[in-house]
Design a protein that fits this description.
The structure holds two protein chains of two kinds. In chain A, 11% of the residues lie in helices and 30% in strands. By secondary structure, chain A is mainly beta. Chain A has a single domain, classed as Nucleic acid-binding proteins (OB fold (Dihydrolipoamide Acetyltransferase, E2P), Beta Barrel). In chain A, strands 1, 2, 3, 4, 5, 6 and 7 form a seven-stranded mixed β-sheet that branches. The longest helix of chain A has 5 residues. The N terminus of chain A is likely disordered. By secondary structure, chain B is α+β, with helices and mostly antiparallel strands. Classes of the chains: A mainly beta, B alpha+beta.
Chain lengths: 133, 261
């Protein structure tokens, strides 16, 4: 099954340090951090709950078949301090999610960046700017 | 001797500690220094600074004299047995296949709770200094009213803490732990004999340093040292964090993405 992939398989070594969507709680073992994918889809729900927020979204393949994907973000507390809220994403929003795919082939990824297809961006999801001070 | 030097010269390093600021900095009438405020753990410039896979979330343990340890931690036979029984996350072990107590929403304990990238708030009140950890919503009380440790304290997740002031450094002494928490993501164990000494002091108005000495003769053949730096966040508040909040959905997610099928 072929999905609308954008900017596939970009080497992204070290990305975790800069954006840290899912490292803060349980590490990144499940993700292939050497690959970055971008998927266009429709939001089903934003589960804005600790310890990790999840974006549930559907992605259609070239034949119009929809598949359910999940993108794991960091905690709502860290996201909120960057400007996110539970209403940053709403059902039916059209988005492009960029992140690292899981190693086991499931339809899941880490969410490093989320933009709307009309070009609007969501707030940066990384640590506070001075956290390495 | 790097670490030992830090322990010996706090008064030199803390000359700015009593400057007033937006949140804290002005000593109260009860204490020589005031750490009131919300503090965020630094991921850089201290021992245990960021690595690509674990940004600031590991301690670097040192010899008592401050030298880096060569090789593995100096575990006793008991400690090694516990380490081998622990299944930390790793290249092929995701959260659901780990027996990390943290992933079961148990309190992280000391000193591990300092490693999580969430703020803590420090509140001074007569006879006590309180630490409100956002991560897990744990409250730690450090009694500074001159009392000794509780008789037969514990076992508890965060221990029984008493403290006293040495200049503008708060020196805490904590015992009464259980042996259920880890020292870090690597599954490093400790026993219920864990004894923590912390020296908490400002290195400048916006930076708090916690120098940690760990003595656990049941698990380690020598005392160990490390430290953690925090950055003042004057405009922040502690937010709610309930680990169980998303546990069902998150568990399903973890099953979906596990590597060991």
């Amino acid at each position: 099954m072929k999905f609308k992939l954008r900017a596939c398989f970009v080497v992204a070594a070290g990305l975790c340090v800069g954006s840290l969507p899912v490292c803060a709680h349980h590490g990144t073992a499940e993700y292939d951090n050497t690959k970055t994918i971008s998927l266009q889809g429709t939001v089903t729900a934003l589960q804005y709950l600790n310890p990790h927020a999840l974006i549930l979204f559907t992605v259609k393949d070239d034949k119009g078949q929809a598949a359910n994907w999940t993108a794991e973000l960091q905690s709502p507390n860290l996201l909120s301090r960057r400007g996110w809220s539970r209403s940053t994403l709403k059902p039916e929003d059209q988005i492009i999610v960029t992140g690292h795919p899981v190693k086991n082939g499931a339809k899941a990824m880490s969410g490093q960046k989320v933009v709307f297809i009309d070009g609007r961006e969501t707030p940066y999801m990384g640590l506070p700017a001075d956290s390495s001070k | 001797m790097f670490f030992a030097g830090l322990l010996l010269v706090p008064s030199v390093l803390h000359t700015q500690a009593s400057q007033p600021g937006k949140a804290g900095g002005q000593p109260t009438s009860q204490t020589p220094a005031d750490f009131t405020g919300v503090w965020y753990p630094s991921t850089g410039s201290t021992l245990g600074a960021a690595t690509p896979d674990n940004p600031g979330q590991q301690f670097v343990w040192l010899h008592p004299e401050g030298k880096p340890l060569k090789g593995p931690l100096p575990l006793t036979a008991w400690g090694l047995e516990r380490l081998n029984a622990n299944r930390p996350i790793g290249p092929n072990t995701t959260a659901i296949d780990s027996n990390d107590p943290d992933f079961q929403c148990f309190p992280s304990g000391l000193p591990r709770i300092y490693l999580f990238l969430y703020p803590l708030e420090i509140i001074h009140t007569p006879g006590r200094v309180l630490m409100l950890f956002e991560y897990g919503h744990v409250i730690r009380q450090i009694f500074t009213d001159g009392r000794g440790h509780m008789q037969d304290a514990g076992p508890t997740w965060m221990g029984d803490s008493i403290g006293h002031w040495e200049g503008d450094t708060l020196v805490t002494d904590t015992t009464g732990f259980n042996d259920k928490t880890w020292l870090g993501y690597g599954g490093q164990p400790h026993s219920d004999a864990l004894h923590l000494i912390e020296r908490i002091h400002r290195i400048d108005h916006d930076s708090l340093m916690i120098d940690i000495t760990l003595d656990d003769p049941k698990a380690y053949s020598m005392p160990l040292h490390t430290q953690k730096k925090y950055i003042l966040k004057p405009d922040w508040n502690i937010m709610e964090f309930v680990c169980e909040d998303n546990s069902l959905n998150f568990l399903e997610y973890e099953k979906k993405v596990r590597i060991q099928q």
